[in-house]
């Protein structure tokens, strides 16, 4: 099969993926054909289409055939066909397969073995070995759980039961996480691909760059704004880096940032897109489903933490630019904002419609996303980027690429969750971790954060979140942490694993564009995002920060306290605030920020510290201004 044939076959599979998802979301089988479709069956169809697509596109070593001009192999074509047959058979006979249960079910066992092998191989080709190795460890544990003692002890499970349960049971591969991905996440991937494929990306990028006109370090700041806007829709740190970074990273380097700093800024900004409402990463939709709450509640709670993340990143870039005397953008490099807005303003309509209805209506998010994608097409007809055959194909292609990066990882994570469920480890491990922390909530949070970061080495955020929610979130909830705060805590550290060496996928992608060393970029990204590591601790220790209670004076006192605290931390890390800071001043700022954070739940002390620190900062500012005037 030649490259053109490979591309045609891949596009056909991706078109079927999109049509199947849209048909299920809008209840077409039930309303027009009288067919009752289970959500597990849709998950099986999607895995089959994605698996076949991966075998067609990626060779044995994980190289993309079209990008590298490689011919297909007969073995991979056979594997693609087997994927379609196995998952089509499972879909058509799903009711009969699950009716027999998990023992004495030969066909269920055969289908389950084939499904696990196919999922593992497609995951290896797209995500690498790390996730497959972790899954293998889980499978070995599932078979030996009864032989462990203490923290890891679980019930005895046979091979037959383990394999069929993890694939066919709704607590495993076909659980709610896969359902959310194949409906809600798919719909938002389609919306993002449509918006940016038809020109919406140019609108956001040009406005972000022109908005920093004449601002010191403006290239870095425009990268933050552009990556935030794109990340809220894409929900993928790596695709954010690749799409936006190809413009912003060279722009930052030309303005004076080092290659390492430019790549780190883009990696941190792109990673934050997964935690920034109104449209967060795929894990946020799974979170809403697991907590059985509206997605709007998750987005509202996540808003302040996300703003704090970007607020401190913006400050650190500003301080670094001031310290290194990095110039503003050249006028020649700034796109004409007025002209861009005049030509592409219609793309603001679908975004506004989606955001408004997402928070004000009872229409399911997945339907809103598809409707907004359709509005994007209409809006594009009023811009220079009118829909064409090539652009429609690129939207289908981008949608398939987005799902290829998510579905295999979520499928593997689902199998892991099935193992946690059948062995009972999900419950016993959480209780044991609480015991190990000896009632110390802070120690429990540190252990949970480290576990999330370690598990996140090389794994997609969604997979990290799904596994950690099943493994350690119950421990936080048992210790008294509110459900939403516990889930957001795990989610945050799963996101931050994208920039945490030694395996930091977002930093790797940015370094490849900048031509910098990815390990150095990873450590620089950690420094830029270091204050972001504090955010999850704050909203667990002071849950009021998630309340979004804008009518409460105490809420605003907490907000002001954390803003001042993060300003102090950002200046301490960068060594600059109004002037270059000495080591004693930097230590003082860290101590003062900790005092602010420690007083968040005590209004009197919080107000006292805010007043005293504000007075001290004003004194520093006036002193530095007077000294500068004397020098002039």
Fraction in helix: over 70%
**Principal-axis shape:** globular
Cα distance, first to last residue? 73 Å
**Biggest sheet, open or closed, and with what strands and sense?**
none
Strand content: under 5%
Which stretches are low in confidence, meaning pLDDT under 50 for 5 or more residues running?
Answer: 628-632
How would you describe the oligomerization state of the chains in this entry?
Answer: single chain
- What is the alpha-carbon Rg in Å? 25 Å
What descriptive keywords fit this protein?
632 residues, mainly alpha, 74% helix, 0% strand, globular, disordered C terminus
Give an overview in words.
With 632 residues, this protein is an all-alpha fold. Among the domains are: 3-172, no CATH class; 550-632, no CATH class. 74% of the residues lie in helices and 0% in strands. It is built from 31 helices and no strands. It has helices spanning 3-25, 28-33, 39-57, 74-92, 94-99, 106-127, 129-144, 159-168, 176-197, 200-211, 218-234, 237-255, 259-272, 282-291, 295-324, 337-344, 348-360, 365-380, 389-404, 407-423, 425-436, 441-455, 461-471, 473-478, 483-496, 505-514, 518-528, 535-541, 553-574, 583-598, 603-631. Helix 4 (74-92) crosses helix 6 (106-127). The longest helix is centred in the middle third of the chain and has 30 residues, at 295-324. The termini are far apart.
Give the arrangement of secondary structure elements.
Elements: H1 3-25, H2 28-33, H3 39-57, H4 74-92, H5 94-99, H6 106-127, H7 129-144, H8 159-168, H9 176-197, H10 200-211, H11 218-234, H12 237-255, H13 259-272, H14 282-291, H15 295-324, H16 337-344, H17 348-360, H18 365-380, H19 389-404, H20 407-423, H21 425-436, H22 441-455, H23 461-471, H24 473-478, H25 483-496, H26 505-514, H27 518-528, H28 535-541, H29 553-574, H30 583-598, H31 603-631
Helix pairs in contact: 1-3, 1-9, 1-19, 3-4, 3-6, 4-6, 6-7, 6-8, 6-20, 7-20, 8-20, 9-14, 9-18, 9-19, 9-20, 10-11, 10-16, 11-12, 11-13, 11-15, 12-13, 12-26, 13-15, 13-26, 13-27, 14-15, 14-25, 15-29, 17-18, 20-23, 22-25, 23-25, 25-28, 26-27, 29-30, 29-31, 30-31
């Amino acid at each position: 099969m030649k490259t053109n044939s490979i591309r045609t076959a891949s596009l056909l599979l991706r078109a079927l993926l999109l049509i199947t998802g849209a048909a299920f979301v809008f209840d077409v089988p039930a309303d027009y054909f009288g067919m009752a479709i289970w959500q597990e069956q849709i998950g099986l169809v999607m895995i089959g289409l994605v698996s076949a697509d991966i075998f067609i596109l990626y060779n044995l070593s994980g190289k993309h055939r079209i990008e590298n001009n490689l011919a297909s192999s007969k073995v991979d074509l056979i594997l693609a066909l087997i994927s379609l047959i196995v998952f089509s058979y499972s879909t058509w006979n799903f009711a009969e397969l699950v009716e027999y249960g998990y023992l004495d079910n030969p066909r269920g066992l055969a289908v389950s073995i084939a499904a696990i092998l196919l999922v593992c191989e497609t995951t290896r080709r797209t995500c690498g070995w790390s996730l497959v190795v972790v899954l293998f460890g889980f499978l070995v544990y599932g078979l030996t759980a009864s032989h462990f003692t203490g923290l890891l002890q679980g019930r005895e499970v046979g091979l037959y039961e383990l394999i069929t349960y993890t694939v066919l049971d709704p607590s495993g591969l076909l659980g709610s996480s896969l359902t959310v991905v194949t409906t809600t996440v798919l719909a938002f991937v389609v919306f993002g691909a449509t918006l940016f494929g038809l020109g919406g990306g140019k609108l956001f990028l040009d406005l972000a760059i022109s908005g920093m006109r004449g601002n010191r370090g403006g290239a870095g700041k425009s990268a933050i704004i552009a990556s935030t806007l794109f990340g809220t829709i894409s929900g993928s740190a790596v695709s954010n880096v690749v799409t936006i970074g190809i413009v912003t990273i060279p722009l930052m380097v030309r303005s004076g940032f080092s290659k390492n700093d430019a790549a780190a800024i883009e990696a941190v900004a792109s990673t934050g897109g997964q935690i920034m409402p109104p449209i967060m990463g795929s894990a946020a939709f799974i979170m809403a489903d697991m907590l059985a709450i509206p997605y709007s509640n998750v987005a509202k709670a996540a808003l302040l933490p996300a703003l704090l993340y970007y607020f401190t990143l913006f400050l650190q870039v500003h301080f670094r630019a001031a310290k290194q005397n990095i110039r503003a953008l050249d006028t020649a490099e700034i796109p004409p904002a007025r002209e861009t807005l005049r030509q592409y303003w219609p793309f603001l309509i679908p975004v506004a419609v989606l955001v408004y209805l997402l928070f004000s209506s009872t229409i399911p998010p997945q339907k809103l996303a598809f409707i907004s994608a359709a509005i994007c097409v209409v809006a594009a007809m009023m811009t220079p980027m009118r829909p064409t055959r090539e652009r429609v194909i690129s939207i289908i292609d981008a949608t398939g690429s987005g799902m290829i990066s998510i579905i295999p990882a979520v499928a593997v994570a689902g199998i892991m969750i099935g193992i946690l469920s059948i062995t009972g480890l999900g419950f016993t491990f959480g209780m044991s971790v609480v015991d190990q922390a000896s009632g110390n909530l802070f120690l429990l949070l540190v252990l949970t954060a480290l576990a999330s970061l370690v598990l996140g080495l090389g794994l997609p955020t969604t997979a990290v979140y799904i596994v950690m929610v099943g493994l350690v979130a119950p421990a936080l909830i048992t210790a008294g942490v509110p459900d939403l705060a516990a889930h957001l805590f795990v989610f945050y550290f799963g996101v931050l694993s994208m920039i945490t060496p030694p395996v930091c996928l977002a930093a790797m992608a940015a370094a490849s564009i900048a031509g910098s060393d990815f390990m150095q970029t990873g450590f620089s990204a950690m420094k830029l995002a270091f204050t972001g590591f504090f955010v999850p601790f704050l909203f667990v220790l002071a849950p009021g920060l998630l309340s979004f209670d804008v009518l409460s004076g105490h809420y605003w006192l907490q907000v002001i306290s954390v803003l001042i605290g993060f300003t102090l931390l950002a200046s301490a890390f960068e060594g600059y605030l109004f002037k270059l800071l000495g080591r004693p001043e930097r230590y003082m700022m860290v101590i003062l920020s900790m005092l602010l954070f420690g007083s968040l739940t005590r209004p009197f002390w919080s107000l006292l510290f805010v007043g005293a620190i504000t007075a001290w900062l004003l004194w520093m500012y006036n002193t530095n201004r007077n000294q500068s005037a004397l020098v002039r």
